[in-house]
Design brief:
Largest sheet: 5 strands, mixed
Shape: elongated
CATH architecture of the largest domain: 2-Layer Sandwich
Strand order of the largest sheet: 6-7-5-10-11
Number of helices: 11
CATH topology of the largest domain: Beta-Lactamase
Order of helices and strands: HHEHEHHEEHHEHHEEHEEEHE
CATH class of the largest domain: Alpha Beta
Amino acid sequence: MSLNSTDFGLTTLQVNSGFSKILAEKFEAKIARFERVGMGLFDVANCFVTFGRVVGRSGLTERSITEMEAAFSDEFPLSDEVLVLSDLNVHGEFGQHRFVAGPPMIRFFASFPVYGQDGKLVACLRLLDYQPHIFDDEQRLLLADLAIMVERELALSAVCQNQLELMKQNRRLKRDTLVDPLLGTWNKPAIIRSLRLEMERCANSGKPMSLLFLLPDQIAELRAKHGMVLTDQILVRMVSRIRSCIRPFDALGRFDNDQFLIVLPGASRLVVMAVAERIRLSVMMHSEWIENAEVSLTVCVGLASTDVYPDADPEILISLAEKALLSAKRAGNNTVVQATPGQPDMMI
């Protein structure tokens, strides 16, 4: 079985192109955009949006100018204070700093707080240059505007991330409603839907499609004798063996209690017979040990194919496969029967 999520509306998140771009863009790229805007808007050598540390972010050596600028910025802790140092040379405490008195000889520094959705300080917007800048009220307002834009980007990113998580949860919940919780196969509504979709696809492409209806022979007896827990464990292992005998894109579903329906798109009556025999032999060759006794397991299988019944709709094809399964049961355990028009019990 293959859980083909596309068939059940469980594809990768369906979002519009704008939202897709927001989700796809890395956080670092969003921050870098604001830093470029800051450099151009204020005509400064560098602009950082720092969340506490920017050293090492560039990937350059510590002797590079960018890393020196980052190291200087990192010496200022995040603060709610709006700080504008127009000329570091005239500020005694900074005039002797190694990056002010020596290379790269930083002369201007400004810092503006950036807040999160909860109103708490999360970052600072910082400007650095190698010549003094006189910041008037208009430039301070522009710096405040840029900080607000950063805040809104952070808020939007948080909203998008929450939306993404909700969509993932909804996808998981939807998937859970289609899957048998014990065996991990499709449940009855899901396997029937898969059948309808595959029949339509195969009909449109002129390919055959086959059904395989399967019933473990000893399961009911084992359940009555050994209980649900042990029998379910045996059933899980049996389903695993069945999966190993079919293709990844074939669909395996629990149709009713211990009955299983397998949809094989593109499979003719000859192919499905070979698959059924492979499953029968695989189950038969793997006996189970129950309470120190070896128990042989077998299955009965009923088959129906659209190359035998080209006009059959999904309900009729299921009915034919089920009747073939009943014929297999009447013939004895460990039997495969294929529905053909000449069989009396295949009349519909």
